[in-house]
Write a structure and sequence with these properties.
The protein is of the alpha+beta class. It has a single domain, classed as Hypothetical protein (Metal Transport, Frataxin, Chain A), CATH 3.30.920.30. Helix content is about 35%, strand content about 20%. The chain has a 3-stranded antiparallel β-sheet with strand order 1-2-3, with helices on one face. Strand 1 and strand 2 form a beta hairpin.
């Protein structure tokens, strides 16, 4: 399996918006995105830092309910 793409919090936020999520609120450096169907995810947005592969996989699989390949096609 190919390596997971490395994304910053800002890039992940843009991908979430493509999926229909909207920025609900921000607390410090963490943004909370919500979808109309009830899904919610929180992403860290730290300047210049990429999201770790473990956290990114957790967001993709559990929070978004997508397979890794489906998510990569969106980018």
């Amino acid at each position: 399996m190919a390596k997971l793409l490395r994304l910053t919090g800002k890039e992940l936020g843009k991908a979430l918006e493509k999926l229909g999520f909207t920025l609900h609120h921000q607390t410090g450096s963490h943004q909370v995105y919500k979808h109309q169907d009830g899904r919610v995810t929180t992403i860290p947005v730290h300047a210049g830092e990429e999201i770790g592969p473990g956290l990114l996989l957790k967001i993709i699989k559990k929070d978004l309910g997508l397979m890794r390949e489906e998510f990569e096609k969106l980018l």
